[in-house]
């Protein structure tokens, strides 16, 4: 990686950090309380991502196209916060069918068929995983915190590792800025943060690392998946909402994949999670 490219990437660090701090402050209290307060925040974030997705994938989107996507999102989250996952998935399925039918006349319905579940299903999982228990020492808070911390650490490690070390590209056809050095740096930092988080939660170091590894892989795959979408659609960013990041979907693409995988992992380990 040339010095010019390194300087260009590092120059974007300040707005990225500032944006990250602001998002963290906005999320902290709702995340602490869980339940309907957390659901309201997830709904706002997910609605923005859905707006970015529809705008990016459907140049001729009608008000009905946006409306169906939002209705599907809000109804699914309402069922999720009430602890009704089957109803949430059912609502998602029905609204997706309606949205695909609405899109048929314009073509490209496959983007709608994939896009609604792509955003809504992880949002439902985040609601179900967090639950309604208030406080730090709750199962939902610690599990979702673990996922988020690992994903953030992987992203930060990849950013610094790729910017300073450079080297061979990870997937040059999809995302030319991502390197193997960045991916490895992200994996290392995520493992370290997972071990530290595990100490507070009561997880052994080896268990924390074993949980972190698939989460990091999923976060990278989620990032590359969105990069593939943008390349196919010929767009650079999903939006301009977040300085240094682009759109909200640009920032949370890694988390969408990791939170679903994390929920599956936590189901598999069951009562071996030390809290709750």
TrEMBL record:
Q: Which organism is it from?
A: Algimonas arctica
Q: Which residues cross the membrane?
A: 20-47, 59-78, 84-101, 108-129, 141-160, 180-200, 206-225, 255-275
Report what the protein is called.
Phosphatidate cytidylyltransferase
Q: What catalytic reaction does the record list?
A: a 1,2-diacyl-sn-glycero-3-phosphate + CTP + H(+) = a CDP-1,2-diacyl-sn-glycerol + diphosphate
Superkingdom field: Bacteria
* Key words, A-Z: Cell membrane, Lipid biosynthesis, Lipid metabolism, Membrane, Nucleotidyltransferase, Phospholipid biosynthesis, Phospholipid metabolism, Transferase, Transmembrane, Transmembrane helix
Protein's GO biological process? CDP-diacylglycerol biosynthetic process
Name its cellular compartments.
Cell membrane
The record's annotation in PROSITE patterns points to: CDS
Q: In which pathway does it act?
A: Phospholipid metabolism; CDP-diacylglycerol biosynthesis; CDP-diacylglycerol from sn-glycerol 3-phosphate: step 3/3; Lipid metabolism
Q: Report the membrane topology from the UniProt record.
A: Multi-pass membrane protein
Q: Gene encoding this polypeptide?
A: cdsA
User: One GO CC term of this entry?
Assistant: plasma membrane
Q: Which family does it belong to?
A: Belongs to the CDS family.
Q: What are the boundaries of the signal sequence?
A: none
């Amino acid at each position: 990686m040339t010095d010019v490219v390194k300087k260009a990437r590092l120059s974007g660090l300040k707005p990225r950090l500032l944006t990250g701090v602001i998002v963290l402050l906005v999320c902290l209290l709702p995340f602490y309380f869980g339940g309907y307060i957390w659901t309201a925040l997830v709904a706002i974030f997910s609605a923005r991502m859905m707006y970015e997705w529809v705008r990016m994938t459907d140049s001729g989107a009608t008000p009905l196209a946006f409306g169906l996507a939002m209705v599907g999102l809000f109804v699914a989250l309402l069922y999720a916060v009430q602890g009704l996952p089957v109803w949430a998935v059912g609502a998602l399925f029905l609204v997706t069918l309606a949205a695909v039918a609405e899109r048929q006349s314009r073509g490209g319905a496959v983007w709608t068929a994939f896009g609604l579940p792509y955003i809504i299903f992880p949002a439902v999982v985040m609601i179900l995983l967090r639950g309604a228990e208030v406080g730090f020492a709750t199962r939902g808070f610690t599990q979702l915190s673990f996922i988020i911390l690992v994903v953030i650490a992987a992203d930060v490690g990849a950013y610094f590792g790729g910017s300073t070390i450079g080297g061979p590209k990870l997937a040059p056809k999809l995302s030319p800025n991502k390197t193997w050095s960045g991916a490895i740096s992200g994996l290392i930092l995520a493992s370290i943060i997972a071990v530290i988080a595990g100490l507070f939660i009561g997880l052994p170091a080896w268990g924390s690392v074993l949980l972190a590894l698939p989460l990091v892989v999923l976060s990278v795959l989620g990032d590359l998946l969105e990069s593939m979408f943008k390349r196919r659609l010929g767009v650079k960013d999903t939006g301009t909402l977040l300085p240094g990041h682009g759109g909200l979907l640009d920032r949370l693409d890694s988390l969408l994949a990791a939170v679903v995988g994390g929920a599956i992992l936590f189901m598999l380990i069951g009562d071996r999670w030390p809290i709750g």
